[in-house]
Amino acid sequence: MRPGTLSLPALPPLSLYVHLPWCLRKCPYCDFNSHEWRVDGAVRELPVDTARAYLAALRADLEASLPLIWGRPVVSIFIGGGTPSLFPPEQIAELISDLRARLPLEPGCEITLEANPGTFERDRFKGFREAGVTRLSIGVQSFDDAKLKALGRVHSGEQARAAIAEAAQAFDTFNIDLMYALPGQSLAELDLELRTALDFAPPHLSVYHLTIEPNTRFASAPPENLPDPDLASEMLDLITARTGAVGMDRYEVSAYARAGHRCAHNLNYWQFGDYLGIGAGAHSKISFPHRVLRQVRWREPAAYMAKAGEGAAVSNENEVARSELPFEFMLNALRLREGVGVQSYLERTGLPPSSIARAMEQGRQRGLLEADPARITATAKGFDFLSDLQSLFLAD
């Protein structure tokens, strides 16, 4: 609450992110903070006592963070990883109970859990629903066994279809994650993937271009026969056409949803809302009347658990500089197909319209931004060249 360089008229909505860092196998394309659980060099199931110790660390982390968000209601919770579905339903129930006991949740608060097809058995998803999860996000990536093997996934296409069928029975809303531009993938193969996914009538679909990220196994040993940019662009056009034909709206660069099923948690990110992140390597963005604070937790799970127990889960934090706020806001907001109102920019950053006037004019002149003076919205061209548009808002 000490004096700072900003003047925010109101604080934005607050979400909570919970990171559960372990997985059965680290995928070669993955640059998230995920860790295989290994004993004597072999991958093993996560022991119950380790899971309990981690839940205790999360409680300590949250309690130490409460003064930063005291009294603010939480609009959404996202339990991500790693593979959170490695934790059994009773432990997810304990986690959600711990959160409810310490935070005021908005009525109808969306609670999402990430799950992978290779880590569930029958009725496990039903158990997550009974634990308090309201939305499931299933990391399918592909239904093609050869493509799944190339991606290093632990599940099969049959397991993916079974997981979606079970999710559809247990949840009113759920998401399917798919990847495209996979090694050797043709347009016809992607079309089959889409038809398989859409046959389940998913309320929400997230689709990601396979990219080679630094510090991954694919970075040191890239897969062969990746689709070229022209084919990848055709694939994205196909995805948009197929989803649109079944009534799904592309409301964000990578997200398609039926009416009433947009992801509230991700929308809060893209609208530059606040979020407290707890768990190994989790990030936070928290606004105060005169500053915006970013935090990062200790990344390695054992170090995180030890530090959280000492009340020191945060490894570093910094105040976002005024000069960085326009780009940080646009990096998120311009991902939304409908954009955001200019008033939202003023409220979430505490900056005047003059702080983005030059970049807005450049964007309009280049045909990347719509001319509407009350909204910040990418044109169709701007949506296709989003990085170029966002870069206009970088500090000089």
Structural commentary:
The protein has 396 residues and is of the alpha/beta class. 38% of the residues lie in helices and 23% in strands. The protein has helices at residues 48-69, 89-102, 124-131, 145-150, 157-170, 187-198, 217-220, 229-245, 264-270, 301-309, 325-333, 342-349, 357-365, 380-384, 386-391, and strands spanning 14-20, 22-23, 35-36, 38-39, 42-43, 74-81, 105-115, 135-141, 173-180, 204-209, 249-252, 255-257, 274-279, 283-288, 291-297, 314-319, 340-341, 375-376. A 9-stranded mixed beta sheet has the order 11-12-10-9-8-7-6-1-13, sandwiched between helices. A 3-stranded antiparallel beta sheet has the order 14-15-16. It starts with 13 loop residues before the first strand and ends in a 5-residue tail after the last helix.
* Terminal Cα span: 29 Å
Q: What coarse outline follows from CA principal-axis ratios?
A: globular
Please compute the radius of gyration using only Cα atoms.
21 Å
- How much of the sequence lies in strands comes to 15-25%
Please state the structural category.
Answer: alpha/beta
Indicate the mean pLDDT: 93
In the sheet with the most strands, the strands line up as 11-12-10-9-8-7-6-1-13
Question: Helical element count?
Answer: 15
Low confidence ranges:
none
Question: Count the strands?
Answer: 18
The major pleated sheet works out as:
9 strands, mixed
Secondary structure layout:
Elements (H helix, E strand, L loop, with lengths): L13 E7 L1 E2 L11 E2 L1 E2 L2 E2 L4 H22 L4 E8 L7 H14 L2 E11 L8 H8 L3 E7 L3 H6 L6 H14 L2 E8 L6 H12 L5 E6 L7 H4 L8 H17 L3 E4 L2 E3 L6 H7 L3 E6 L3 E6 L2 E7 L3 H9 L4 E6 L5 H9 L6 E2 H8 L7 H9 L9 E2 L3 H5 L1 H6 L5
Parallel strand pairs: 1-6, 1-13, 2-3, 6-7, 7-8, 8-9, 9-10
Antiparallel strand pairs: 4-5, 10-12, 11-12, 14-15, 15-16, 17-18
